[in-house]
Amino acid sequence: MGLIKILKALGDETRLRILNLLTNAELCVCEIQYSLNTTQSNTSRHLKTLSNAGLVVSSKKAQWVSYKINDSILREHPFIKEILKKEIHQLEFANKDLEKFLECQEKGIPCELSDGLV
User: Fold this and answer.
1) Which domain holds residue 31?
2) What sign for the dihedral angle of Cα 81, 86, 88, 93?
3) pLDDT at 112
4) Among 59, 47, 57, which residue's Cα sits nearest to residue 16?
5) Count of domains in the chain?
6) What residues contact residue 49 under an 8 Å CB cut-off, 6+ apart?
7) Any idea what the CATH number is for the domain that residue 15 is in?
């Protein structure tokens, strides 16, 4: 993937928030949506940008798509791993988003109910 495309994808707060969540687990759109308190369409749009930049990969499970960080891009561009492991946690949203994600996990928010949660 092109470095410019990667840097542009990293230059958006929502996409950094998504990557922050994905450093902890493989997640479906509804889990990300709930954790960030955003809409499904907005979440999907940002995931598409991250995917086009090669930062995330997806897999389909029934009608749901789950996302994870692309390990090969981390090997190819180690600075991304540094950002995700060290720098991102210093940003204001990082801990709040992770708390919301843990709440989602504890409540067991099912994907089919997520549209009414934001």
Assistant:
1) 3-108
2) positive
3) 54
4) 47
5) 1
6) 9, 12, 15
7) 1.10.10.10
